[in-house]
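User: I'm putting together notes for a lab meeting next week and I want to include a structural view of one of the chains we've been expressing. I don't have a solved structure, so I'd like a prediction I can at least talk through. The sequence is below, exactly as it appears in our construct file.
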Amino acid sequence: MRRTMTAASRRLQASLNQEIIPSPRSLLIATSHSWVCASCTRRVNAIPSRPATTQSSPPLKESLLPQTHYELFPQTLSSGPPPHGPFDIDVRQLRKEFLQLQARAHPDRHQGPAKHRAEGASALINEAYKVLQNPLLRAQYLLSLRGIDVAEDETATVEDPELLMEVLEMREQIEAAEAEEDLVEMRRLNDGRIEGSVGVLEDSFRRDDVGRAKEEAVRLRYWINIKESLDAWEKGKPVILVH
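Assistant: Thanks for the context. Below is the predicted structure for the 243-residue chain, given as structure tokens.
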């Protein structure tokens, strides 16, 4: 069954259109981290635990808050997360909608208490885009919605000796490379692995096969680590694959 735009996404969209930004406490869990606005690279401090509110701009009710990152992008992701919507995302369309939302929620467009609320909304939009545009982070996020943490779980591995052997061989080949030209074929092969893994995730989430999706997310993490090692290659530099 195809999901339509929820009350939460309609409320957020209307708020942004009217330049009324919900309270940051209503949108985000306060952390000790700071955030960077994707539009201007301005760093935003962590959200205060008790942000100021006014009678004209009360916090949203919990029932109207966006429940997932997907609800922040109703134009691109109108069907919601899998299994209702596809795992694959039109990243170009997602970025277009992201820039539109950030332009409306940019803190410099607001003053006083509304500025704090804009910082919260901008941070949430920024984080949601960062996660959704990356297949590995997207898969990890979708699994986290099911209570499965493969992003922070260092013990999450794939019981596949052939996979582990393949990863070790790739590491040795990268370390043995003498020039960038030696990496061309390795990059091509690894890009194919990543594409294949994303395809398995698409099928797994469509079938709501969480166990298979978890295993493939761990597998994809290996291929992404190899990609990062290839991108950061320097002659004679040891290759450290974090899985």
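A couple of points you could mention at the meeting. The CA atoms of residues 187 and 230 lie 7 Å apart. Residues 1-9, 16-64 have pLDDT under 50 and may be disordered.

User: Perfect, that's what I needed.
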